[in-house]
Design goal:
Pfam family, one: RVT_3
GO molecular function: nucleic acid binding; RNA-DNA hybrid ribonuclease activity
Largest sheet: 5 strands, mixed
Distance between the termini: 54 Å
Radius of gyration: 16 Å
Number of strands: 5
Structural class: alpha/beta
Organism: Brassica cretica
Helix content: 25-40%
Protein name: RNase H type-1 domain-containing protein
InterPro entries: RNase_H-like_dom_plant, RNase_H-like_EbsB-rel, RNaseH-like_sf, RNaseH_domain, RNaseH_sf
């Protein structure tokens, strides 16, 4: 997962989000890879209005997760071009203003950080984690509907 000319202590973190617009929730998938270990996470985010908002909220959760895990040299990778451009201050997106401000405030205490776009093909594990979490939620909802007591 390392980039050329990148220090060996940098951890690559890949994330993706899947929006369930009917419930205004998003499922996120996250992979954290380093020379020492690989970790995967899934999580639900509530009150999500759009796919871009889902990606932004996912990034904020990912940054907070890295902070909790005390990972201070991180390369955040996403297949959302708009999100990466917004965080890197290349593109102004009103919908992401407060989220990008939160993300930048949190990573200010990190030692080394970068936000990088990657093609969807390189983000398949995070994508599958998010989609699988959504499928599990969908199945649970359908099961609950079918099993309603009379």
């Amino acid at each position: 997962m390392g980039e050329l000319n990148e220090p060996s202590d940098v951890v690559a973190v890949r994330s993706d989000a899947v929006l369930c617009s009917t419930r205004q929730t998003s499922e996120l998938g996250l992979t954290i890879g380093s020379a020492m270990q690989n970790r995967i996470f899934q999580q639900r985010i509530e009150f999500v209005g759009s796919p871009l908002m889902a990606e932004g909220l996912t990034l904020r959760e990912v940054v907070l997760t890295c902070q909790r895990l005390e990972l201070w040299s991180v390369r955040f990778e996403s297949d959302s071009t708009q999100l990466v451009k917004c965080i890197n201050s290349v593109l102004e997106v009103a919908e992401l203003h407060s989220i990008s401000s939160d993300v930048l405030a949190i990573v200010a205490e990190f030692v080394r950080v970068s936000f990088v776009w990657i093609p969807r093909e390189k983000n398949m594990i995070a994508d599958c984690l998010a989609k699988n979490a959504l499928i599990v939620v969908e199945l649970a909802v359908v099961e609950d509907v079918v099993n309603v007591p009379n």
